[in-house]
Amino acid sequence: MIRDVSSSTLGREEERKPLMAAYMFQRRVLFGCSVLMVLSLIMWIVAISTDHWVIITGGKGIFIPETRRFFMDSHSGLWVHCRHTKTPNALPTANVVRNFTSIAYVNPTTLLDAKLNASALEFVREFSEEIVEIPMKNFTESARRRMFAHWVRNDEEEFKAFKKIFEDLVLNTTATQAETIPINAKPIAIDPLNVREIESRKIFGTALQKVRVNATSYYFVIPEAAQLAIFVGWNEKPFVPKLFWPYVRDLGVPAFVLDDHQVILQLVPPLPPSSGREANGYVYQPNERCKYIDMFTNPKSLNKDPGIDVELMDYIRTQASFACITVFVMSLGSVFSFYTFKNPRYMFKRLAGGIHLVSASTAVVVLQVLFSSVDYTKKHLFYAYPEGAELTYGYGVYLAWFTFIVNLVCGLLFMWYSGKKKGAKAPNDEVAMADEPTIMGR
After folding, report:
1. Domains of the chain
2. Which residue has the higher pLDDT, 7 or 210?
3. pTM of the entire structure?
């Protein structure tokens, strides 16, 4: 019996045409997924590089007591944080009540230079040589002068000794603690433009002082504990008015004043103008600062930044770690995705699909940790997320969601199309051979 080989072969090819069509459709789908994986990898790198993940806006401005600035907006990513504020500075001719901190040196370098220049002045040398009888029953004028002189001259041991005496005789007394320890209540906002009302009603009590600085008289709010720390005639000495606040801050004296119920009285300037810089007797100086987040900062540095703490740093480090892991896993997944076209064996498709699902998991971890860090910031860090601010998410978050969805869908598609195609189920002999079991021999 003679078999018609050509007709048998043609018949088998006809039977495999639907299988080949389905196989080619599968290859097109997986090729599209592989291209999308490369695109999503690029978008993920762009996303984690940008500083527009979390955007917090303060509307017309939210006053921050810690810095005496208006918070305007901020935007941050995994590595960089940017903050836009406006500092209200009263005009020299403006009839307003000023906080004594408003004339102080803010820049640390400028402060060190001012202390260095002041230490060379004659009156500082004379103050440092004044005789003070110890032990003291009351903190005398001579003690105030000596303590200030030692602070200016950076005589640490002598300054610490006088500071300890000042704490015992002044700060730790019952009367002073009632004026410096506030209750947990929202501060009472006081309009600094209502000078007559503040003076007539004695809102700030003896803390409101009319001080002459550079031949001009100003109303300053100076806490009574701060008044007890500075010598008489401080406003007439060079450098001293601008060194006053850094000096009492190092003594541990707070800048606020309390009412009779121990609630903080807070001078709040008018909101910044929508256009221009001058309004209501104030000049509003814009300030925008961007800084890289130090992933391995020490706790002492964190204490100096009111917008971050140890727990928030844990969130940030977790985000950054999983972001880098996602880059590595996605790169590996892209390689295996294209390798499945060179070697159609089912296990490589399953491997690629599994890697894509892992990438989706690590990407969603970054997003979930981000949302948790925002919730934590809102509850515990008023400086970074002021009350009344509005939260929006930037394009970095949307790119991250796109990456997650692409990885998830492509992972599922690779797993779906990873079934074995042996024998009559294979579209051709090459695929059938690829999916045959491999026997590992000696």
Report:
1. 5-57+306-434 (1.20.140.150), 97-268 (no CATH)
2. 210
3. 0.74
